[in-house]
Amino acid sequence: MSDFLLPVHYLRQIAEQLRVMGTDPVDWLLQCGVEPRQLDDLGYQPGLPLFCRLIEHALDLTDEPAFGLLLGERLGINTHGILGYAALQSESLRQAIQLVERYLAVRTTLVTLRHEHDEAAQLEHIQFVPSYPLGAIQRTVLEAVMLAIKNVFDTITPGSARVNQVNFPLPATDYADLASAMFNCPVAYAQPWAGFTLDSALLDLPLRMADPVAFREAEQICQRELMKLSEKTSLTARIRRLMLEKQNGFPSLEVTARLFHMTPRTLHRHLLDEGTTFKLILEDVRRTLAVEHLKAGRLTVQEIAYSLGYNDVANFRRAFKRWEGVPPTAFR
């Protein structure tokens, strides 16, 4: 089974958005090699390359650069299955954020969510980290996912938990005003991370739709679903996701093995069976994050090198040139 997860329900949402915009979703599917009847199969799961092709083709057909925002707008809380239902029963925004942070993977593995507290500024940073190199569709995916999750938080805290700012680690767009209107807050580009910021004081306000019993029952279902997925997901993908969530201070082989309840020797053997090694996974994650940091343009080459665990900047430059064919300064 592919480590990439996106329920077919979301493909149907994309197809419906295309229909609303005057594009025939049947042609869209067929031109990407997908039979329309496959969208009626609850077990249908596209691989990541096919998903990327579908999104790229949707952008071509609609000629709408803000397609991700339009898609995210239609993804209300009721489109996220048991995860959306559980969020609706949350007692506080903090509980809802923790829920999504733990169980977003039961809906999609496109991104992981990370919550960081800024004690000095009394702010909460809700960050979205792509789990895969998304290339040309990264902006579309981030816009759709971030707006969908913000829709969830807006629904459970109607009018009481306003987001201060939305951040994108990407250049500004011609439709920045539209993005600000749809997120209903300022949107900043060329930032070091993707996500949004809100006041810490909002986290523990009681929510009027809270139902603790229903929340616990729904969370238990999310737990079971996540366990089923973990059993089917390769060890390589799970380690890669762990490293992407850390982003710096990557765990060693020994620490990683302990986290997965294995000895380093057993972990190494399992990775060899999957055609890789711990070192190769680490290098792939470093490459992904290095490219993202350079595109964002917020950190110096030296800062990027140190954040990725290189004590010698020259070693980072050599590694980057091996990955991309040019030194980091030329890539930027």
The residue ranges in which pLDDT falls below 50 over 5 or more consecutive positions are none
Strand content: 5-15%
Strand order of the largest sheet: 1-2-5-3-4
Q: What is the tally of helical segments?
A: 16
Determine the mean pLDDT: 92
Report helical residue fraction: 40-55%
Distance between the termini: 36 Å
Radius of gyration: 20 Å
Categorize the overall geometry: globular
Total count of domains: 3
Largest sheet: 5 strands, mixed
Number of strands: 5
Provide the structure class: alpha+beta
Listing every helix as H and every strand as E from the N terminus to the C terminus, the arrangement reads HHHHHHEEHEHEEHHHHHHHH
Describe the structure in your own words.
This protein has helices at residues 8-20, 25-31, 48-62, 67-74, 81-88, 93-103, 138-156, 176-183, 212-232, 235-246, 253-259, 264-273, 278-296, 301-307, 313-324, 328-331, and strands at residues 111-118, 123-130, 165-167, 187-188, 195-199. It contains 16 helices and five strands. The chain is of the alpha+beta class and 332 residues long. Helices cover 55% and strands 8% of the residues. A five-stranded mixed β-sheet has the order 1-2-5-3-4, with helices on both faces. It has three domains: 1-64, no CATH class; 75-232, no CATH class; 234-331, Arc Repressor Mutant, subunit A, CATH 1.10.10.60. Helix 4 (67-74) packs parallel to helix 7 (138-156) and helix 5 runs antiparallel to helix 6 (93-103). The longest helix has 21 residues, at 212-232.
